[in-house]
Amino acid sequence: MQDIAKYKIFECIAGSHCYNLNHDKSDIDIRGVYMYPSSIHLSLNPLSDFDSDESNDIQFYELRKFLKLLSGNNPNIIELLYLNDEFIKFFTSEMSLLFKHRDSFISKQAKNTFSNYAIGQIAKCKGNNKWINNPQPKEAPKKRDFCWIIPLVTQEMDYLKNRCYLPDNDRFPMRPIPLKEYSPYWYENNLRDHVVSKLEHSENIYRLYHRNSGKGVFRGKDENLGVESISKEEEYISLQALLIFNKQAYEMAKRDRTNYWKWMEERNAERYILQERGEISYDVKNISHCVRLIYSSQNIFKHGRPLVFLSGIQRDFILDIKNGKFSFDYIMKYVEDELLILEELYNKSTLPLTCDLNHINAVYMEMLEMFQKRTGMK
Predict the structure, then answer these.
(1) How many CA atoms lie within 13 A of 176 on its CB side?
(2) What's the alpha-carbon Rg for the chain, to the nearest Å?
(3) Which of 64, 81, 72, 105 is nearest to 12 (CA)?
(4) Number of Cβ within a 10 Å radius of residue 247
(5) How many CA atoms lie within 13 Å of 102's alpha carbon, on the beta-carbon side?
(6) Contacts from 51-56 at CB under 8 Å and sequence distance 24+?
(7) Cβ(110)–Cβ(82) under 8 Å?
(8) For the chain, which domains are there?
(9) Residues contacting 276, CB < 8 A, separation 6+
(10) Beta-carbon count within 10 A of 188 CB
(11) What string of pLDDT tens digits covers the 378 residues of the chain?
(12) In terms of C-beta density within 10 A (0-12 exposed, 13-18 middle, 19 or more buried), how is residue 50 classed?
């Protein structure tokens, strides 16, 4: 992280601890705000408006970015202005002024920002389910597993009939056959006795030739396709088939494997125990975030402020979600009903459609003046 200590005006504990949903193994998330004096903003040298450690457990926002996110009713940001005092670690007079005007940021925009974020948690849950239900192999995918063969009709008709690929007639429908299925020998030898040349007017389709060059179709550590030029005399003798390399499927498999093992390395394993045991079919953390966000947005339209510290029935229900006590369908029906309640509260609300940016700018200018007087930085 960059050196922002002299510019820091706020630091707090966020996440599950401030929501009253933490357990003994919960991470401690730190959030904060720093502000630059006018001279830095007027400089031509670009400066960061965001700072974070590698794990994102610690995140700091430059004040102007922080104010923009607040003005848009960003859920994670606006909740920081409504924390219980016990979670605030560092607080200056400038931040005290911002807290004094915190209600100025609350607007009807919260319905969309909070509910969209909540629904996004469901999408993330499904993404994590993909990894739970589709573990990837440790070994990298092989290009040969994404190769298909279209045999030459004149040479392969009888052969294919014997292997039951064709009915007893004189027509061949030109259907691609997986390399491993068509020729286990070619597959096991990784087409090392072959070369390819590009088929004109096509993508990822090649003529496959027999050639004992020792180089093979897939070459080097990265298994690059060994595309070679073939003389007309040679191609009539050594042409064996058309080879299709499904490059898109191969790249997707490679990407999925990388993402899966990155997820496995970085994930909190305890979070997925219930899923891996088959006891539930959803990611409890994402779904609990979803419900908490809906509760918080409902509170905005009931009482004019987000609900941060949970207690009572709402806290118990979210903890039950985390403990896997409900089916995915039950939770989805519950979310649907709660979003309808949010819609009704929104329609009855007298909150402004957006916050007053002129007022926010005046607060910012006053904070700048206070910061310059307190620190001597102009």
Answers:
(1) 14
(2) 31
(3) 81
(4) 13
(5) 16
(6) 51/1, 51/2, 51/4, 52/1, 53/1
(7) no
(8) 1-107+353-378 (3.30.460), 143-247 (no CATH)
(9) 132
(10) 11
(11) 667 888 999 999 999 999 999 988 888 999 999 999 888 877 777 678 888 887 778 999 999 999 999 999 999 999 999 999 999 999 999 999 999 999 999 999 999 999 888 888 776 665 555 555 567 788 889 899 999 999 876 545 555 555 545 455 555 667 888 999 888 889 988 888 888 888 888 888 999 988 876 678 888 777 888 788 878 777 778 888 899 999 899 998 888 888 877 766 766 555 444 444 444 556 778 888 899 999 999 999 999 999 999 999 999 999 998 888 888 788 889 999 999 999 999 999 999 999 999 999 999 999 999 999 999 888
(12) exposed
Q: Which amino acid is at 378?
A: K
Assigned token pair, 82: 């409504």
Residue 285's nearest CA partner among 253, 239, 277, 293 is 293
Look-up of token digits 């597993």: 145
Count of Cβ atoms closer than 10 Å to residue 62 Cβ: 21
Task: Report the candidate in 213, 212, 207 with the shortest Cα–Cα distance to residue 232.
Answer: 207
From the list 19, 4, 104, 110, the residue with the least C-alpha distance to 59 is: 4
Tokens of 115: 């509910």
Rounded CA gap, 245 and 267, in Å? 34
Contacts of 86 (CB under 8 A, 6+ apart): none
- Alpha-carbon distance of 12 to 88, in angstroms, equals 4
Give the Cα separation of 372 and 378 in Å (integer): 5
Structure token digits, residue 377: 């930085």
Contacts with 62 (C-beta within 8 Å, 6 or more apart), sequence order? 33, 34, 35, 36, 47, 48, 49, 50
What is the token pair recorded at 347? 């329609």
CA distance 139 to 47: 42
Give the pairing of strands 194-198 and 177-178.
unpaired
> Is the separation of the CB atoms in 75 and 293 below 8 Å?
yes
Which residues are paired to 222 by β-bridges? none
